[in-house]
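Hey,

Quick one before I head out. I ran the complex with xanthosine-5'-monophosphate overnight. Inputs first:
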Amino acid sequence: MEKELIIILDFGGQYSQQIARRVRECNVYCQVLPYHTSIDKIKEKAPKGFIFTGGAIDASSQPSLTCDPDIYNLGVPILGICYNGKPGKDISPITTMEDPINNLFGVQLGPDEEDNSKGSIFLKNFLYKTCGCSGKWNMSSFVERSIEELKEKIGDRKVLCALSGGVDSSVAAVMISKSVGKQLTCIFVDHGLLRKNEGDEVEEIFTKQFDVNLIRVNAQDRFYSKLAGVTDPERKRKIIGEEFIRVFEEESKKIGRVDYLVQGTIYPDVIESGIGNSAGIKSHHNVGGLPDYVDFKEIIEPLRDLFKDEVRKAGLVLGIPENLVFRQPFPGPGLAVRIIGDITPDKVRILQDADHIYREEVAKAGLDRYISQYFAVLTNIRSVGVKNDERTYDYTVALRAVKTTDFMTANYVELPWEVLGKVSERIVKEVDHVNRICYDITGKPPATIEWE
Ligand code: XMP
């Protein structure tokens, strides 16, 4: 299929990502580039159209940011969305107009509105009629093409991937494995702080379903002994991060030099770290600084053009099971941030069991896809209770469920009483050493999503 690309030229402002999403929803592939991108780089990409967004007019009514003027001579259509000004001429934001000389359009589309049918028709007209895009881009074709491109790029060289079992690294790993098979080695460090059965599930999917070259490192005891007696949350994180690197380093040394290291960087990471500048190394909380310790030539980021929901779609296209593809976010340090106070293997087991029951009941009630993140927390509170006519002195488990779009702010979810009641009943009955359940009804802010 012919490569059809729309370039969104970003002059600042907040809309470039939403516009990119709208364009892709019209089945046209697009990339956001900074306004100062060189004409050579743009020519190389051979776009079928541009969308300009952002920008500001200075005191003398001139646009303060300008792109390479040669862009106007390419004969490629340009649409302005929430765009302020162009060299020598402003655009009225409300009226739709066509400038036959510069081939420039200006229109107010309101890219952030979900139901913007006029804007959507206008955008489609621009993409299909003005730019001549076919609107055939979809995730299957993207995945297919990526696999071919990766095959060509990697050749017969060796690739290494740190697999966390999260969505991004899993999709990246499967994509590369489909390209180069056993030239890819995945290292999966089980630090003993995963959710119940998670380590086995990850291993099963990658070895049985995808036949990936997977090294699972069962490092649970190493992590538990390093964490013994540590109560400060920041120290716990640091210990886990450092130990993770050590384990990864030991394993990767056994493999020797590799040519490529896979990173599950996705598009929002690229944009956040400054478009146009290299995204650098994804600062993954749990594998901080990893590349310093691994002998590799180049980083490979097969998902760097995709939004999170697109990564999930790619995962489904690749045949990754839905429960992994729609997995909720899980912090790198795992259950360590959900056990208040010191960590022991017993506490990990208690939390894993309680959390498993909670997730099972929420899923049974059909609410799992509606909630952004939900989990159990083992508070460090113990209190008196009664079980089988005997006095107990056991833990309180807290349940949390939030709805959010960006995880920067969040609302607590009003879970139905019946669901909460069932979860509570099951946990105190089935999990030893828990005799009390609380539900967290705090938003973020002032609370955070995790308890730690
Ligand atoms: P907070 O608790 O800060 O969490 O409101 C916001 C989101 O970030 C996730 N989180 C992490 N993710 N490594 C991660 O990959 C971490 O160390 C980490 N800590 C928090 C958290 O689960 C929530 O989705």
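The pocket of xanthosine-5'-monophosphate is lined by residues 285-286, 329, 331-333, 337, 373, 407, 444, 448-450 (CB under 6 Å).

Talk tomorrow,
K.
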